[in-house]
Predict the 3D structure of the following.
Amino acid sequence: MRSSTSIRAAVLLVLALSATACTIGDDGAAAPSSAGPTVATAPTTAPSTAGPGRPAPSQRADPLQAALTRAVGEVPGGASIAVAAGGRVVTAGDSAALPAWSTSKVPLVMAALERSGRQQATDRMRAAITQSDNDAAEAIWDSLGTPAQAGAAVQNVLHAGGDARTTVQTRKVRPEYSAFGQTLWTDDAAARFAARIPCSPAGLTALGLMQQVAGNQQWGLYGLRGAQSVGVKGGWGPGTDGAYVVRQLAVVQTERGTTGVMLSVRPADGALASGEAALTTLANAVRTHLGALPAAAC
């Protein structure tokens, strides 16, 4: 028979072993188990600093984006806008590609200037941009070779200007209108290209013509107050339903650099005059936010 002393010693040994298995470490955490170390991970999302009803900083609206969106909403019918420079593009409204109409005459004239090797505009080039003369533009197109060759020349200009997406139309999809005028051009691609117009000798010559447009294009961003200079090229024409699409390609230069812009409207009543007035509404939003526009030097 075991003595009571032996029994008490065995009990004390069991209790001691149990206590060792639940020892609390020096840092207040449970001691590592024999299965291996446990790694603590930080939360993947930082706590929000936004108060009740207030968006987090990353969710707050860009003031320029908000202003352009409001301006687009004020236009009866459909409207859209893009401003671009230095790799940044801000857009508002419907982003669908629309016929370029006569805004396409800018890269067309630049292609002809590059082909000639001279930087002095011809009478046809001047008429095509300042007057938006269709016959002059068609003659320039023909001077570039076959439709395929002319399209390639104009597309090379677009690519050099940062627009690698647009495909120049070389076939007269609507016989009464030029092929190049029916090129589908999105606002953002056009704005990217416009921002780079002053960055080549041919572009500088074309920009000089855009700064001298006649009365049939003196709307929208033309004469924009607060800018050092503005060059514009309008484009307009009826859709297959007879309702006008009115667009304006623009180069806005301020002390901060150059901004490319494309404005597009499809007025509710389908009238050209309504489209011109709507473009001026969009231009007012640009004017009041000149300091927030993306801008860059060449």
